[in-house]
Amino acid sequence: MQNLNLVHLNGLRAVEAVGRLGSLQAAATELGVSIGAVSQQVIKSEQQLGRQLFERTPKGMVATEVGQVILARLGEGFRLLSSAVAAAHRRDENVLTISVAPVFAARWLVNRLGSFSERCPDISLRIDASSSLTDPATSDIDLCIRVGRGTWPGVRSELLLEQQVFPVCTPTLAARLKAPADLLNLPVIRDGRAMFSWDVWLREVGLAGRPVESRHVFNEASLCLDAAISGQGVMLAWQTLASHAIQAGQLVVPFGPWAKTGDGHYFVTAENARRSERIEAFKRWLREELAADMAKLKQVVATGCEQPPWQPASD
Predict the structure, then answer these.
(1) Taking the mean position of all CA atoms in its chain, how far away is CA 309?
(2) pTM
(3) Pairing mode, if any, of strands 155-168 and 259-270?
(4) pLDDT of residue 303
């Protein structure tokens, strides 16, 4: 490793960040230094290595051919270093750190954790509420739960639940509805960050391309649900988001079907992670808890549905 004496590690860190993020600005933000400092580190590293690693273009820093080779190895090396640091920070082997989207944590997971504690009293949970996908291999995160297509690079993903969406509104608003087309006359509460549009569901009932009347737009699905509960309009929701409100009678599903978005809830772990009984115990519990809740949800929806053709799908 004597060749590491020929170049400063801080410079290599700057090179790796610029190559991965594609700009000096993004690298400076991540490293917590100025753009000028990152630029100087990259220039110094290129001088020490005797190679030009980047082309400076109007669109950003583009790796040269030799730079691409070096950056690939630097990325692998820094991932291993990050993993070593994360391992050193693990203080209690009985603590399981779960990274989960805030809306799933608040609307479905948190109020069920007592059941997990009863089943696994020796395992303590640390819930990290975050929407960004953290690489479990380079952090202290043991397991992520994310919504998407399950095709994230560099990790192992395992389907937990296919996402299905359906309209929800208060019983008072639902009383005004006779057919799916009547929903077009109600104000719609929009989730500005949703990965799907109303057309996903409208297409299933033969209303594809028909305009809906937007009232409010929020950048958080949990706020949309609160607005729907308060009677401000109809929302296109999914199972884990609306389950509690539907079972509590705050919201109803006036019409089906439940339309698949192509996304799903996934368990995400490090690509080469060793089997952990703590993680497997949590996954088994969550699968069972989710299956039981989905069965209850479908029963409530089917019981309250006056039009059998619009009952939720059984799969």
Answers:
(1) 33
(2) 0.69
(3) antiparallel
(4) 83
Q: In this structure, is residue 94 part of a structural domain?
A: no
Peptide bond into 257 cis (omega under 30): yes
Residues whose CB falls within 8 Å of the CB of residue 23, separated by 6 or more in sequence, listed in order: 60, 61
Q: What share of the chain is helix, strand, coil (3-state, %, to 5)?
A: 50, 20, 30
Same domain, 13 and 146: no
Among the listed residues 260, 258, 237, 239, the one whose alpha carbon sits nearest the alpha carbon of residue 170:
237
pLDDT of residue 275: 85
Which residues constitute the domain of residue 141? Answer: 99-315
CB 16 within 8 A of CB 75: yes
CA distance 207 to 310: 15
85 shares its domain with 103: no
Burial of 102 (0-12, 13-18, 19+ CB in 10 A): middle
The stretches in the chain having pLDDT less than 70 are 1-6, 80, 82-93, 137-138, 305-315
DSSP string covering 97-116, please?
EEEE-HHHIIIIIGGGHHHH
User: Which residue's entry shows tokens 């000096």?
Assistant: 24
**In the chain, how many domains are there?**
2
C-beta of residue 233 within 8 angstroms of C-beta of residue 225: no
Tokens 């952990």, residue located: 276
Instruction: Note the Cα 127 to chain centre separation in Å.
Output: 14
121 torsion bin: left (phi>0), alpha (psi -120 to 50), beta (else): alpha
The DSSP element (H or E) to which 146 belongs, if any, is strand 143-148
Specify the pairing of strand 124-129 against strand 95-100: parallel
Is the Cβ–Cβ distance between 152 and 99 less than 8 Å? no
Kindly report the number of other CB atoms within 10 A of residue 227's CB atom: 18
pLDDT digits (tens, 9 = 90+) for 143-154: 999 999 999 888
Of the candidates 67, 89, 111, which is a domain's last residue?
Answer: 89
Q: H-helix or E-strand containing 265?
A: strand 259-270
